[in-house]
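Please annotate this fold before class:
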Amino acid sequence: MAYTDDLANLPNISFDRILMLAKDNVPPKKRENPWIGLEHGVKLLDNDDELAQYLVAYGQIHREKLNLALDEIKSPAEYFSRNITIIDWGCGQGLATICFFDYMRNLGIEPAVEKIILIEPSAVAIKRANEHVLKYTSSAEISLVNKFIDDVKVSDIRASNDTLVLHFFSNVLDIPSVHLDMLSDLIKDNLKAEQILFCVGPQNAGVSRIAEFSKMFDIKDDDLIGEQSGQLSVRGTINLMVFRLKANVAEIIKVKYYHHPHMNLSSNTALKRVLSKIPETKSQFVKALQFYNAVIALEKMKSANIPEKDIFYYQYHLEDPKEVKFNIDIQANCEFEPVFLVNLDKSKTKWPKHLNIALCICWNNKIYRLLQYIYPFEDLKDININKQYISVDLSMFSVNEDVAGQLELTRNIIEAITAVLKDKDTTLGKLESILRDAIGHTVSLYSQLSLCLTEENPYLAQIHSELKNLEGKDESPLITAFLSGHLNSNIEDNVSEDDIISVVNMDDSQRRAITSALNSKVSVITGPPGTGKTQMIINLLANAMLKGKSVLVASKNNKAVDNIKDRFDMVDDYQYLLRFGSKDFNETNIMPSLDRFSNSISDIKYDDESLSKTISKYDQRCIEAADARRRIGELVRLTDSIPELQSSIESLTHQHNLFSKEIDSFRTANNDIDRLSSNNKYNWEKMSVDIQKNLNILQSKNRGLKKIFFNIFSKKRYGVQILNELLSFPSEVRKWVEDESGIRQITDIQSCSNLIELYEIELKHANRIKSYCTYLSAKVSEIKEIEKQLSLGNKALEDVKRKIDILSEEQEKLIKEIEDIRKEISSLSVELLSNLIKARLVTPETRNAIAIYQNYLPNNIPWKKQDIPAFVKDARNFIAAFRLNSVTSLSVKSAYPLERELFDMIVIDEASQCDVASALPLLYRVKQVVVIGDPCQLKHITSITTDEEQIIKERLALGENSLLRYVDQSLWDYCNGLITSAKYNNTHVMLHCHYRCHPQIIGYSNEMFYQKRGMTLKVCTKEVNNELPNKGIVWVDVIGQSATHNYRINEAEAEKAISIATDIASHCPIVSIGIISPFRAQAEKINSMIPKAYRERIVSDTVHKFQGDERDVIIYTLVITDNSPKRMISWIDNVVPNLVNVAVTRARSTLYIIANREYIKKYSSRNLPLGYLAEYTENRTSVTSLKQETIIIDTNVFVNYPDILHQIDPSKQIVISAKVIDELDKLKVKLDDVKRRNVELALRNINRSFDIRGIRMECADLECLPIDFSRRNPDNLILSVALKYRNQSPTLLTSDNGLQIKAKGLGVNTIKPNSI
């Protein structure tokens, strides 16, 4: 309840302060993408974390829209001076209401709100709304209606007829489940006061529910559209409307339309064509599929590869230079006309093509098709070229993203050119001027248009086809959760790390990755270069076989799939992992492989008993490891329980002391009766009852005639009785009674009233003593109970300590036992995998499954609906025999049907290069997905612009869905965000150990790219290639010039690269060499310069093409120099910064950088890739140690050793948990003077050392802790930081024995301060 408490203490409430408070309360893992898991803002929120997320993700958007709506009320001070009732429909956390108060206060107005009705189905949200609103007003009556809007009754929204009713509909009317007719009837039929309806909605083109709602109040289309006539049907969508309702007559105050600011849809015929083919649907699942299908449809139209021989040129003439319109006469080009006509002839062309028209630029004696327009075939087929021109306006052209990439144009430049194209006043002269400013002063518009026919990209066409088919399929659990952006559960299994088999070497991070993959429905693995992704995948496949899972390995990259296949074959003599590909590949590779299996099955020697024994042995070792883990876990649990037990004992002791003091004070205050209470001779309970009984008798006799007779005949007898009874009382009580009553002898009694008074005084003192005894007895009982609990607590603490002592003695033995079990399981692994494969192959069904499936390959994959069920059945039988398969995203269709959950698991490698759309058909075929990638590598390349993507989203009413993205989001990005919505298994696993590059090479990438994302690599590189003269990074400073004919060529650098490469090749015959450049022209230039004798040894290409490859020596020529356009260095640093990381990490032993250092230092900076590379290579010419030890310091060390930082070897990395800083800050006010001074000194030393020593501060990562560790224990938070670094030989510096025990149990080294 931290948010609620902070809110209560928040002074000067404002919407901004609420947003800041929400940001502080968003879980750390969701702060970067707070919308994850909220189902695009329509999820019914059910916990505090989601409330904070929603505020951060959507709060500002709500405020901006509502403020725009409120701006439409003229003279608000006067208008809102009346008594107001607010009805906040679907109020969520009351954002509309508090925005209203905030808006008014900013105007200096205090509105007269007398009643607020908050309507919201989420119980936690409406409670939070009430808390928010109460901070703004204490005078208004607040009514909470915890219902869905359709369930609201008349009684829920009663308002006085003389008030002004304000209705707020903030992103509510666009929810399809809200019945607008019922809602409008409820308002019209039951509220008679004057009303204002503020309706705001998402910025989604095509969403018309606000318009529909307004029409239910008899608002006509003419009134609705007004001067905006025509915009609703083309691009306009009402996203804001304010109207007044008085006597059920509606009056529009304001209507606002949303228009896309950058693109005129009518000028983008390709996009328009794509949008026109999207059918209407209410299913959010289908809409998400339609979004990806649409972007792929547009991508395939725009991404055609056009050979130069297929391009024709057309000399254009403008009739009016002010109106740039190109009228193309196809018949004027005698070469292109027949090609064009054949394309239109259905009898000659089965698959007609689109017309690509390009407005070219001429630069450095080369023509670039920079601006293009795609004329879809559907629009061409009806044109009669004998009578008609093909007309294209300048505004219809867009920037060709592929050519822009060749020219290294930044996104800002592309957007500037786009804006000029769309400006109706743009002339060709103005356009040419802009292009010169953007590209170079020698640029000119080419005098001819480029014409060509383009067929759609076959890869994208296939993805588009599969996505289209998906729209008609039943949803699968995985893909439904995937597209919704929310995982209700991400638990698939409960495999222990100790159970993992390893058929190839495996480090701890790879083991964790495999465990995560087996246990999660969606798992994300980060595999930086050289961290053993492939060997991890090989071991994952082996473990999946052991679990009986069928697995599909996939990637967009052929090389990645081939590499996995080759590596698996090295541990499997049967080559069981099948590699499917194109139809031609399947014919030449898969068919022979299946023949080989069919012919050799009878020769396989398989012993079922041997497999059973091996599995039995494996199972037994797993049980033993689990028991050892349980014992270690028990030690940890017991250690964790000590602070709680000690706290309980301290609390009981404190309570005991308080009660004792309370009793002592009570006895002192009642000293006069304390002695009497301890005298067992008197039963004060009974005495009190007897006195009361006698008093009642006397009171009954003290009435009317009885009183007279009593005083005459009975007074003396009763008086003697009472005085005799009084003699039996303790002397102190007797004296109190005598003194108060004045009656000491019988003669003092004058009447019955005297006797009654005497009894009342006796009763008062008896009751006082009785109450004292009762209270004292209760307190004594409570103290005895506390003493009993203390005894039990102390005994429990002794038992725990005794058990800890016993288990601590066993700990090292248990750890060693687990290590031995892992080794034994590893020794069984290859044999186990081999027997599991043989067990699949020798079944009677396998040969038949192969024969049947071969009938489908390579060219007989069914497409008719009636043939699909049999194909699916046969595919399942085939997969039952061959559990391991591999494909590319493109080739899966040539191998397997599009059927839900065909495989148990898919492993997608190079997921950071894969877009989400191309992965969806793969995901539909599986139950479980493992994505492996590196966010610091290059993403997929697309020709789609963000504007086009946004328009598609708006057409589907997904405009505010920030999760669905294609242009700038990889599959790895999407899945990494998706898993954060799950309660468990919600973080990616990183492969930490780097085995490829020389330490100095990977050191740069570590610091520049990975550490900035909280991912630090442990360098485990072994020394190789001893014959090389230089190792690590060698900067070769070359001050060349960009070529005048092509600024992307630097001949001086090219010559130096060839010189270095040939020298190494001649002296080191077994060393592999690659020369790479960010620019294709430079790579091609160098490639032409490689001597024929070395063409097998030296390869030259772009960095993009080299991704996924590696060489012993890489020579990296940057080209950029003094006469280069400044945008070139900006393009590398800002547009494709990961390009530098890819380039650097291609080198195993030596990286030569050929570049102009001073130029880079001048135009880049240390926080950018090139600037930091220049600085890094200048200051660090060697690496002193391959393994830098990491020290994590506990709080108690700083308290007792404030100068500890000065005592630690400077070569060691120091990491401090954020919890340590927090604890030290709190201890400043709790400790004695000496310790407090120590803490203050320690904090000063930490502050000074952050920059000097490069100290890192890390937040706790609770996912690193075993599940049975307390998440609130400060020691465990500090321990979690050490566990984050466990692949970097971390050492935990602490004096705390309990923390040392837990750390050792988890494999973390510990030392005490006096050992430094």
